[in-house]
Amino acid sequence: MLSEDAKQVKKELEMFNQTKRRLKNLQAELTYWLQFGGVVKSPSLEPHMDGGITEPYAEKRAKKIEELQKLISEAIDSALDAEDEFLKNIQHLDPLSQNLLMERYMTGKPLNRIVKEFNYSERNIYYLYNKSFERLAKK
Fold first, then answer.
1. Per-residue pLDDT of the chain (139 residues; tens, 9 = 90+)
2. Who contacts 54 (Cβ-Cβ below 8 Å, separation ≥6)?
3. How far apart are the first and last CA of the chain?
4. Which of 7, 35, 38, 122 reaches 20 to 30 Å from 53, CA-CA?
């Protein structure tokens, strides 16, 4: 059973992973808007009162791209700060625990895959995993 401090450390690392996943999703959405969100003509092509044809999608597209770029920039800053803190904190752990946490949080591998790659029993990996949080919580 993890202590409250260790649970908090684990929660922060999970939030780090969520930030990285969010960043990937935002980048994919930006790519969509840059490539396929380029519908610049109104479906009805109704004349504008000043003459010409309105292009509401072009304005919507530009705003969406600008908003996504801002969100991506914020997510990158947040992820880099969290990554720096993570790397600084795990230096106090033994090499096996460092590798375990690096695989889990830097590469995003699930624990069942790490169990296979490390060639340890599932019980040992979970023990090391939880023990790592306890050690990080003490630092």
1. 788 988 988 898 888 888 888 899 999 998 888 887 655 444 455 554 555 554 566 778 888 889 999 999 999 998 899 889 889 989 989 999 999 999 999 988 999 999 999 999 999 999 999 999 999 988 7
2. 42, 46, 47, 48
3. 19
4. 35
